Amino acid sequence: MPPSLSVIIITKNEADNLHDCLQSLAGIQAELIVVDSGSSDATVQIARDAGATVIQTASWPGFGPQKNIALAAATCDWVLSLDADERLTPALREQILAAISHGAFKSYEMPRLSYFCGQPIRHGGWYPDYILRLFERGHARFSDHLVHERVLADGETGRLDSPLLHYNYRNQGDVERKITSYSDAGAQQLFLRGKQSNLVSAAVHGGWAFIRTYVLRLGFLDGVAGYQIARMNQRSSQLKYAKLCALRSQALAKSPL
């Protein structure tokens, strides 16, 4: 009997993405697990129509903890973790099936090709962006990071070479929403680790994020989109540290004299 596969996805208001994500799984027989954190659109219905087991959480614990909830619900030999804005290509589907059938590793990473407002981005640190998404159940878990979580796997990890497609910034509205949400979560994560900040260091972090993305990682080779991404990273980093400064001030104001 061939190994079985669970596909786990976390969602919130992903109706515009989820259908295409699930369609990209065509040809793969898999258990579908969707963990939703209070969607107000058609996300849950789309998942159920596709035959997914839907788990709804009352609160948002952060990306890592939420993905561990999804992982705990999986029952198959192997697990593939996807975000709703990601798509498998036919070539990647074939490589995944081959890996779980006769691969030499208990976990695999794959390159991810991300799109920014319709343009594939190959510089600025965005590609090949290898990410570990396929692993044997019981041999990996997600870190507890509130944002930018990662898979913690046992042993050596293999590599697939077909890219996972990532439509993470479809328009300027997506850019603004993610700058806000990622800087909020990043500031909270730094605060919980006891990190310090001030407005000067926030500006320095932002400037360094721009230089690293646009110059050192050759973001300028992606043209206008490369510049926009560098500016986005600058704003997100500066906001994160400015919000950390605000959190520290609030905590000090509440502390007893």
Give the SSE layout.
Elements: E1 5-11, H1 15-23, E2 31-36, H2 43-49, E3 53-56, H3 63-73, E4 78-83, E5 86-87, H4 90-102, E6 107-110, E7 112-116, E8 119-120, E9 131-136, E10 140-142, E11 151-153, E12 158-159, E13 164-169, H5 172-192, H6 199-216, H7 223-254
Parallel strand pairs: 1-2, 1-4, 2-3, 6-12, 7-13
Antiparallel strand pairs: 4-9, 5-13, 6-9, 7-8, 10-11
Q: What would you note in describing this structure?
A:
This protein is of the alpha/beta class. The protein has helices at residues 15-23, 43-49, 63-73, 90-102, 172-192, 199-216, 223-254, and strands at residues 5-11, 31-36, 53-56, 78-83, 86-87, 107-110, 112-116, 119-120, 131-136, 140-142, 151-153, 158-159, 164-169. Strand 10 (140-142) and strand 11 form a beta hairpin. The model has no long low-confidence stretch (mean pLDDT 95).
Please give a quick description of this structure.
It is built from seven helices and 13 strands. It has 257 residues and is an alpha/beta fold.
Key terms:
single chain, 257 residues, alpha/beta, 7-stranded mixed β-sheet, 4-stranded mixed β-sheet
Mean pLDDT: 95
Strand order of the largest sheet: 3-2-1-4-9-6-12
Q: What is the CA-based Rg, rounded?
A: 19 Å
Distance between the termini: 67 Å
Low-confidence stretches: none
- Beta-strand percentage? 15-25%
Structural class: alpha/beta
User: How many DSSP E strands?
Assistant: 13
Order of helices and strands: EHEHEHEEHEEEEEEEEHHH
Name the helicity range. Answer: 40-55%
Shape: globular
Tell me the number of helical segments per DSSP (H or I, 4 or more residues long): 7
Instruction: Summarize the main sheet.
Output: 7 strands, mixed
